[in-house]
Write a structure and sequence with these properties.
Shape: rod-shaped
Helix content: 25-40%
Radius of gyration: 25 Å
Largest sheet: 10 strands, antiparallel
Structural class: alpha+beta
Distance between the termini: 80 Å
Oligomer: single chain
Number of domains: 2
CATH class of the largest domain: Mainly Beta
């Protein structure tokens, strides 16, 4: 009888140790997954962002790449570089990581398409200054706009938002 109780106690201790080890491993794996997750990867659906020069902006996340967010916000579409986002105020759902192709999509590809369509854009820089024109040239680290007052060159790192009409 005593042996049965002893073995029963030992088995209970072993089960408790295994459960604790399993829970610790699950926590560690979860921490590793979060450590490899970018803030932009947790965005999805309706989002509210705090953006340089614009303040709070609400919209539906339509596209997410390694460096850009595409939002539908009212009558306009917004292209927001990650560096211009100061805070994520709210997000509806976590979406998956960008596809390999989407992850390679950069300003250059998006703005060349706008150039090809000769669609007017508004470029809001991080200070809040707005430049309106048609994309003329897309360089390695800048965009040149044809504006009523002549060509304007805006470096990527100065861009807070690019707005287009839908």
């Amino acid at each position: 009888m005593r042996w049965e109780r002893l073995f029963s106690d030992v088995e209970a201790e072993v089960e408790e140790i295994e459960r604790e080890e399993r829970d610790a491993l699950a926590q560690e794996l979860g921490d590793e997954e979060w450590a490899a997750t970018s803030w932009a990867e947790v965005l999805g659906g309706e989002v509210e962002l705090e953006i340089d020069a614009l303040g709070r902006v609400r919209g539906r996340l339509e596209r997410r790449t390694a460096g850009l967010l595409g939002l539908s916000s009212g009558p306009r579409d917004l292209l927001v570089p990650h560096h211009a986002v100061r805070q994520v105020v709210s997000t509806q759902e976590r979406s998956g990581a960008p596809s390999r192709l989407a992850g390679r999509t950069r300003w250059t590809a998006v703005l060349r398409r706008l150039r090809d369509e000769a669609e007017p854009v508004e470029v809001v820089d991080r200070s809040g200054s707005v430049t309106t024109g048609v994309v003329e040239v897309v360089g390695q680290d800048f965009v040149a706009l044809d504006t009523p007052s002549g060509r304007r060159i805006v470096p990527w790192n100065a861009v807070a938002v690019v707005r287009t009409e839908r």
